[in-house]
Amino acid sequence: MTNPTVQPIKAIILSAGQGRRLLPLTENTPKCLLPVADKPVLAWQIDALLAAGIGNITVITGFQVGLIEELLQQQYAQYPGINILFNPFYEVADNLASCWIARGEMDCDFLILNGDTVIEPALLNKVLNSPAAPITLSVDFKNSYDADDMKVQLDTGGWVQQVSKIVPPHQVNAESIGLIYFRGDGVRLFRQAVEEALRHPAELKSWYLSIIDRLAKQHQVNSCPINGLRWCEVDFIEDLSRAGIIFSQ
After folding, report:
1. What are the two backbone dihedrals, phi and then psi, of residue 106, each rounded to the nearest 5 degrees?
2. Which residues does 75 contact at the CB level (< 8 Å), separation at least 6?
3. DSSP state letter for 187
């Protein structure tokens, strides 16, 4: 099903990192190229975006950029809207720097997708057709959240109050899956916040979700629950097997 939204939408995929927690699998292969059910994570992402009618896709690369270029040339040469932006700071910075590299692409409604989140097209369509908000954070729910989860506190109306790995346990009621939709004023707010943040050297080590957390406190971030739809974050070797099971169904 193609998303009925008329306004052009871009997608930015943050795939600069090596994925050291997946060593030795990522010794020479970036995390986004690891296979899930015989298909690279990045290919799952691009195929889901294309199925949703999004052909303007920028992949932020870093580690082993040549291998990613190879995949795009081999499998997506017929899609001229799929491009690469290289992040030369990938060894020393976190993903806020990748957003800074991509800030020139943030000139219309867009999605940010973490390079390690495998999603199905139905999930993407749900987010694209979610109620209008400046920023929409895709969230899921479970019984308990561990230290590595990007934890979220929602108010009773579903608006995000905070998002961070260190939200106190008694305030957590969701987790971010690594897919965010920016619309209207949310585009400008996020781009300006990214430009402002990187003026401070300490922010090189920040996650871009620290900015989403700040904007949430200004009541700019709504949530889109995607429970029941297929997704998997690939951080550790056991996640790869789990993703394989989920996406081979």
Report:
1. -90, 65
2. 43
3. H
CA-angle at 242, arms to 237 and 246, nearest 5°: 150
Mean pLDDT of 21-47: 89
Most distant CA atoms of the chain, gap in Å:
49
Look at residue 19 and tell me whether its pLDDT is greater than 90.
Answer: no
Nearest to 215 by CA among 197, 227, 233: 197
For the cut 80, the answer to whether the pLDDT of residue 174 exceeds it is: yes
Identify the residue whose tokens are 């056991």.
238
All domains of the chain in start order, with CATH: 10-247 (3.90.550.10)
Question: Is residue 2 over pLDDT 60?
Answer: no
* Rounded Cα–Cα distance for residues 109 and 11 (Å): 9
> Cα torsion at 41, 43, 48, 49 (round to 10°)?
110
Dist CA 117 CA 67 (whole Å): 19
